[in-house]
């Protein structure tokens, strides 16, 4: 009798944990917030310093491809109030310090 009451109490107390709301998770955003307005201002032939002034420093600048800049944005546990980037993956290619290719994935 004692054993069955103990098992019943343990089952009820463990089942009550699911009644609580899930814990708060902090939204984690990484990368560059790039808007469509900023993207429309990008022009072929701009210098590296002009692009940096417009978009900021790139998220990834590959050692083996120094003329290729990657502007990326990721968000985890985002809510409706979390700012989102309109562009999630932007690749800019330079040649002799001048913008030659814009690739928006």
TrEMBL record:
Similarity comment: Belongs to the BamE family.
Subunit annotation: Part of the Bam complex.
Gene3D superfamilies assigned to the protein according to its UniProt record, in alphabetical order: 3.30.1450.10
GO CC terms of this entry: Bam protein complex
Source lineage: Bacteria, Pseudomonadati, Pseudomonadota, Gammaproteobacteria, Oceanospirillales
Name of the gene encoding the protein in the UniProt record: bamE
The protein's role, per its UniProt record: Part of the outer membrane protein assembly complex, which is involved in assembly and insertion of beta-barrel proteins into the outer membrane.
Annotated protein name in UniProt: Outer membrane protein assembly factor BamE
Pfam family, one: BamE
Domain Outer membrane protein assembly factor BamE: 31-101
Family matches, as PROSITE patterns: PROKAR_LIPOPROTEIN
Species annotation: Marinomonas posidonica (strain CECT 7376 / NCIMB 14433 / IVIA-Po-181)
């Amino acid at each position: 009798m004692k054993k069955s009451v103990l098992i019943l109490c343990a089952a009820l107390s463990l089942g009550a944990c699911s009644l609580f709301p899930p814990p708060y998770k902090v939204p984690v955003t990484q990368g560059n917030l790039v808007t469509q307005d900023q993207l429309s201002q990008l022009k072929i032939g701009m210098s590296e310093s002009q692009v940096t002034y417009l978009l900021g420093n790139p998220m990834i600048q590959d050692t083996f491809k120094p003329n290729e800049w990657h502007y990326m944005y990721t968000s985890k546990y985002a809510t409706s109030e979390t700012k989102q980037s309109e562009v999630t993956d932007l690749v800019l290619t330079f040649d002799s310090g001048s913008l030659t290719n814009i690739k928006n994935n």
